[in-house]
Amino acid sequence: SRSHFGSSSLHNGHSLHSIPDRVSRMPSMKRPAAVSGKAMGPRPKAARAAATTSKTGSTGAKVVPVVKPKEVHREPTPWDAIVQALEQRGQLVPEVLVMISEALPDSLGVHKDQRHPFQERVLDSVFDELRKIEDGMLDVLRDLTAKVAHTDVERASLVESIAVAESEVHVKEEEHLRHKALLASLEEGVAAAISTLEIRRADQIQVIEAIDVAAERKTTLQSLMTQTYFPLKVGTLDNPVSKATDLVNALTALGFDASMLRSANSSLAKTPDARGSFDVCVIEHLEALLE
After folding, report:
1. Rounded to whole angstroms, what are the CA distances from 161 to 153, 156, 169, 170, 173?
2. Interval 112-127 mean pLDDT
3. Is 55 helix (H, G, I), strand (E, B) or coil?
4. What is the distance between the alpha carbons of residues 95 and 46, in angstroms, rounded to a whole number?
5. pTM greater than the 0.70 cutoff
6. What is the DSSP letter of 228?
């Protein structure tokens, strides 16, 4: 229970609450000469409450406050840490803690051979309580160590996952660079194809224009042959000289050889009966060109 040192008991099965009753029956304990009131060690917080009292007289009497004495500075002692540990981490009730803090200077301040049995019991109880505190702290330390180990495992797993992710990202980046280079190459190919298409389209336009020109030339030529050349050849046109000149001019405009057309002009202007063999040869050559 909390009236004992945690769950531990003193030697011979007696509790600390029965100690004051037995102290009067024990031999007197030896107090070390070096231990004074200044070296008694710090009293627990539960025992350091400041008491303020006042005296009240009859009706109208003045109230006289009790002045709190100034705290006397004391030197630190070796058992201060023990009292502090028991106060902060122990399971002792305040009354027992006060008794132990007051008994420690007389118990630890003398040699082991000179200690009273009660002092030994107090020290054994303090040792048991400190051992419990130590065990509790070790349990906490083990839990923290296990958590740290678990955290290290998780950290290693995360580091491995990050490494795998970074490797995948690196692979993706390389793949992206390859795709980017391929896209650039395709864009260059598309640009070249567009340029070629534009050139071919321009060539096609020129071909179409040339075809149109050739078709128009052919139509004009067919009209000239039907309406002028063949009638001049057979001699059925009136005013053959003028018609021959018009035919030669039209054929010259269509791109035929001018020197050959001059000879043909003279031959076609003649009637068939007046033409010689040279004229016939010139007319046949012209007809071959026109066809």
Report:
1. 12, 8, 12, 14, 18
2. 87
3. strand
4. 8
5. no
6. I
The one-character DSSP state at 56 is -
DSSP 40: S
The type of residue at 23 is V
What span, in angstroms and rounded, lies between the C-alpha atoms of 291 and 289?
5
Within 13 Å of residue 181, how many CA atoms lie on the same side as its CB?
5
pLDDT in tens, 232-266: 888 888 888 888 898 888 888 888 888 888 888 88
**Residue 253 confidence (pLDDT):** 86
6 torsion bin: left (phi>0), alpha (psi -120 to 50), beta (else): left
Determine the pLDDT at residue 3: 34
Contact 290, 247 (CB under 8 A): no
Instruction: Find out whether 290 and 260 touch, Cβ atoms under 8 Å.
Output: no
Contacts of 221 (CB under 8 A, 6+ apart): 251, 254, 290
For residues 29 and 116, the answer to whether their CB atoms sit within 8 Å is yes
Distance (Å, whole) CA 261 – CA 251: 8
Residue whose C-alpha is closest to residue 96's, from 217, 6, 159: 6
pLDDT of residue 9: 37
Residue 265: closest CA among 250, 238, 227: 250
